[in-house]
Amino acid sequence: MNTPEFFTAELSGGVVKRATRLADGRDLIYFDDPDTTLPTERAIDARTLDARPATATMRRDVLTGDWVSIAAARQNRAFLPPAHLDPLAPQTPTNPSEVPSLYDVVVFENKSPSFGPALARATDDAPAADDAPRDLDDLDSPGLGRTRTSVGRCEVVCFSPAHEGSFGTQSRTRARTVIEAWADRTAALSALPGIAQVFPFENRGEEIGVTLRHPHGQIYSYPYITPRTQSLLRSIAREGDDLFARILDFEAAGPRVVLDAEHWLAYVPFAARWPIELHLAPRRHVADFTELTGAERDELATVYLRLLRGVDALYDTPTPYIAAWHQAPVAVGRDSVRLHLQLTSPRRAADKLKYLAGSEAAMGAWIGDIPPETAADRLRAAVASIPEVSL
After folding, report:
1. Does the record bear Nucleus in its keywords (predicted)?
2. Quick check: is 391 in a domain?
3. In a domain, 189, yes or no
4. In what order do the strands lie in the sheet with 67-70?
């Protein structure tokens, strides 16, 4: 095994990036807090690992036009391991985890990805994509039985070396480091060949399907524009390029505002589907995390933590959720699709969840259980009860 080199760079907010490789060639990047106490030296990954799995295959659903990635290697991923075998914790003599050294924040390529290396990233350890999508027109072409290799990238973002927690349990300083990591990775992944859209997100809670309790999120990089964003682009074409600006004006003047900050507005949307649904958007137009100013990133660290802690304050136990950061596609809609968070939870009461049954799951026809204005009242009170976010 060749000893990997480290690439170091200083990012916005005093965050330091240290990039290297794992034993099987996957990228691993440390993001150090500006006030980190960690040494500059990091251990190398000395494990002997199996070859990386072949890149998955996508199949096109001719009835919807959607591409479905068939990633059988994901069947073998870890499922709620005990703390002493946490694969996202720093390595120890008894835990050969994915991360060689103690860290503040770390990002690495998923070992069992839904979307994998393209021809340009082929190595001895990473099989090349043998039928990669040609372009977006190729993916939209008609025909039965169409397949393509699932070219793309899936990364894991560890918010902390702690065994349990979530984004909302982090300090403001740590939250700011994660935001910097999201911006850095959005830029890097958007520049990879064949990537059409980059999606950072956090799944929280076993009710959502989380298989690791370690505080972490993921970043998916797709070879296509996702169905959700294609629908958004059609709405913008119908309503006008200034749609997001008008939505923010509409919500800011209404009864569903949850948190009103200098650079950000949080609100329950007018037609919320979920019992808990919260949107957060910057007041000015930015297409993705890379376009946020330092001041916007600083404020986001505080605002986002207050919102997540407010969601947890609704009940006596932590609330399961999906925190989805929608960004503009890499090459289209940059002037109209605005970066925004869509946080959703199926929790409709302390001991009840909303399940997607016939109308929602089969037909996409949603029925809301809680009026959005009622949900906003409860969220606004919960967020107001949260004390100042600590450093």
Report:
1. no
2. no
3. yes
4. 67-70, 57-60, 147-149
Judge whether 1 lies within some domain: no
Percent of the chain with pLDDT over 70: 96
Q: DSSP per residue over 152-210, as a string?
A: SEEEEEES-SSSS--GGGS-HHHHHHHHHHHHHHHHHHHTSTT--EEEEEEEESGGGT-
- 84, 163, 214, 216: the catalytic one is 216
Establish whether 285 is a catalytic residue.
no
Same domain? For 128 and 31 the reply is yes
* pLDDT band (50, 70, 90) for residue 388: confident
C-alpha dist (Å) from residue 238 to 64, 286, 287, 334: 20, 21, 19, 17
- The answer to the question of residue 147 being in a domain is yes
pTM of the predicted protein model: 0.95
Is residue 327 within 8 A of residue 283, CB to CB? The reply is: no
User: Is the separation of the CB atoms in 366 and 359 below 8 Å?
Assistant: yes
Count of domains in the chain? 2
Q: How far apart are CA 333 and CA 262, in angstroms?
A: 25
Helix (H, G, I), strand (E, B) or coil at 281: strand
